[in-house]
Amino acid sequence: MKNKIQIILACAFIGFAILACGQSSSPSVPPAAVTAVIVPEEAVGAEAEAGSAGLGDSYYPGFGNGGYDVTHYTLDITVNDVATSDLTAITTIAANATQDLLSFNLDFIGFEISTLTVNDAPADFSRKEQELTVTPLKPLVAGQPFTVVVQYSGSPDEMQSVALPVSTGWVTVDGGSFVMSEPDGSANFYPVNDHPLDKATYTFRVTVPHPLEVAANGALIEALDNGDTSTFTFETRDPMASYLATINIDEFDIETMTSDNGIPIRNYYSSELPKEVRKPFARQGEMLDYFSEIYGAYPFDVYGSMVMNTEFDSALENQTLSIYGIDMIDYEDVAGTELTVAHELSHQWFGDSVSVADWSDIWLNEGFATYSEGLWIEHLDGREALDEWVKSQYRDVVNYPQYYAAPGNPPADDLFNGGVYVRGGLTLHALRLEVGDQAFFEILPVYFERYQNGNVSTEDFIAVAEEISGKDLTEFFDNWLYNETIPPISAMGLGVE
Question: Residue 127 is part of which domain span?
Answer without folding.
Answer: 26-163+189-198+200-207
